[in-house]
Specification:
single chain; alpha/beta; Rossmann fold; 7-stranded parallel β-sheet; 17% strand
Length: 311
Amino acid sequence: MTTALVTGVAGFIGSSLAAALLDRGYDVRGVDDFSTGRRNNLQSIRDDPSFSFTEMDIRNSNDVTSAVSGVDYVFHQAALSSVPRSIDDPVTSTDINCTGTAVVLDKARKAGVDTVVVASSSAIYGATKELPKVETMVECPESPYALSKYYTEKLALQFSELYDIDTVALRYFNIFGPKQDPDGEYAAVIPKFIDLMLDDERPVIYGDGEQSRDFTYIKNVIKANVLAAEGDVTGEAFNVGTGGRVTVNQLVGRINDQLGTAIEPIYADTRPGDVRHSYADISKIGELLDYEPIVTFDDGLERTIEALRSA
């Protein structure tokens, strides 16, 4: 039976991925330090006999050595994943995202792991006006978080050149879906807006609202991770998105349409480090990994609204 390690397993993406791998017949080990992950994200899988969990910091070499022993695939999702957070506290974001990745990769290759799939980010492209974002573009990370993800993927791909281990980096484009935390200062825009608007409150848009994102539903990301791990491609970085874009103003409008409301947003000053437009060219991952989105933005938004409504 295939054994996988999911770092950051108590996070939104990590817990969703772990559940999907269990459904696929994997034995799944999960690790998390709960710095941003939530224990209730593991509620649906914690009693599965094929799942085991260890609370740990991925910067701890001894703990990671034990976690990767006998593992076939590592899905490295653990990170502090907020641009504003990284600007407020660049040291912690850099330490966890960079040092943590180096430890996971090093221990994985020493343990004979077959493949490590690391979570990168569309933030590494920066504010370049060229659209869509293509993997051949020169990266221009403009925040400590983006820079840490640039390091994460470059180190992972370098490992495939230096050692006998396969690595793939996935550049996520604005992932959303059930289990994503709507609360807190650094909450992602979609769950935060839905949560506010369900309570008939006005969401805050930073800037004019014409900034656009390639919002990507979680099931598409899970598919990309599985294809990357089980495929034969190594040493490559791929965009993971839907190949489209929605402005933040349009997002508010789509939520209003689905809720049957007419809530007007509040506009505030643009935040430092925010990218103006994000839009993925997904032709490379389609060609090399046979990836295509399986859930559209509107279907994903509907599913996310229903999940938050029933939470």
